[in-house]
Design brief:
120 residues, mainly alpha, 4 helices
Length: 120
C-alpha cells in the first residue's frame, strides 16, 4: 500500500513540476495563486514521507545503501534545477528543465535497479 501511495505522489510531483514550468513560460501570473504555491510542497512532503517509510519497511539501511544516498543527491539536483527552471527565463529555463528531468529519470532507474552506477 505504501509503495502505491509513493508511486502516486511521484506521478503527482512530476506532473505538477511540468505544469508549473509550462505556466512559468506561458502564464506566470497563475503561479502566484496560493494553492499552486502550496500544493506541490504538500505533495512532495508526502512523497518524502512515503519514501522514508519504504526505506524502513524494506530494511534497506541494514545492507548496501549507496543507491539511497545517490537518490538523495539526485533529488537535491532535481530540486535545485527545478527551482532554476521555474524562476528563470529563456534558454536557461529549458536547460534547467532538461537537467531536472534527467535527475528524475536517474532517480527512477536507481530506484528500480538498486544500483547507483547502472550506466557502467
Amino acid at each position: 500500500m505504501i509503495k502505491i501511495l509513493h508511486l502516486t505522489f511521484i506521478l503527482l510531483s512530476i506532473t505538477s513540476f511540468v505544469v508549473r514550468v509550462f505556466l512559468a513560460e506561458k502564464r506566470p501570473e497563475i503561479l502566484e495563486q496560493k494553492w499552486i504555491k502550496i500544493g506541490p510542497h504538500i505533495v512532495n512532503t508526502f512523497l518524502l514521507i512515503t519514501g522514508v517509510m519504504l526505506i524502513f519497511q524494506g530494511q534497506w539501511l541494514s545492507g548496501e545503501f549507496g543507491w539511497i544516498v545517490a537518490k538523495i543527491l539526485a533529488l537535491l539536483g532535481y530540486i535545485g534545477l527545478g527551482m532554476v527552471a521555474i524562476k528563470s527565463q529563456g534558454a536557461l529555463r529549458w536547460q534547467a528543465f532538461a537537467g531536472a528531468l534527467v535527475c528524475f529519470m536517474y532517480i527512477g532507474i536507481v530506484a528500480v535497479s538498486k544500483n547507483a552506477f547502472f550506466f557502467l
